[in-house]
Amino acid sequence: MSSDGSASTSFFRTPPSINEQIKNVIDGHTEPWGTQVTAVEIKDIVLPDNMQRAMAKEAEAERERRAKIVAAEGEYQAAVKLGQAADIITQHPVALQLRTLQTMAEISVEKNSTIIFPAQFMTTVQEAFSLLSKDSASK
Asked: How far apart are CA 42 and CA 18, in angstroms?
């Protein structure tokens, strides 16, 4: 198998070289008789069912491998972005509370729902509002 997983399909990708290889083999066997082969052309190839199934399994495995790589790359990129977001939230603790409020607002728009706030959360929200009002007053 080649590095790109195309061992069985490489045969079908280069018919001119296959024709030339077959011509050389036949020519080597017929030359002692004084016969020279000038051209060989493959018109049709019929593969046994079990070989077709094996090739299909190989192709499916390759597609699955590529899909897993794409998914893993997406997960990696998402993890990097979440790490960056966590760094920003660490620098601005109020940002997490504001994000929580935004998420709750989005939830309440989608469906008629009741949201229960923990008491600690409400204290933190009050602290955030007072911090914001002090910040805006100092400007």
From this structure: 9
Q: For residue 101, give the nearest of 122, 70, 82, 120 by alpha carbon.
A: 122
d(CA 96, CA 90): 9
Q: Per-residue confidence at 65, pLDDT binned at 50, 70, 90?
A: very high
Tell me which residue of 82, 111, 79 sits closest to 96, measured CA to CA. 82
Torsion of CA 70, 76, 79, 81, to 10 degrees: -80
How far, CA to CA in Å, does 123 sit from each of 118, 126, 139? 9, 5, 25
Stated pTM of the model? 0.47
Domain borders along the chain are 93-139
Q: How far apart are CA 124 and CA 72, in angstroms?
A: 37
Answer yes or no: are the C-beta atoms of 21 and 39 closer than 8 Å. Answer: no
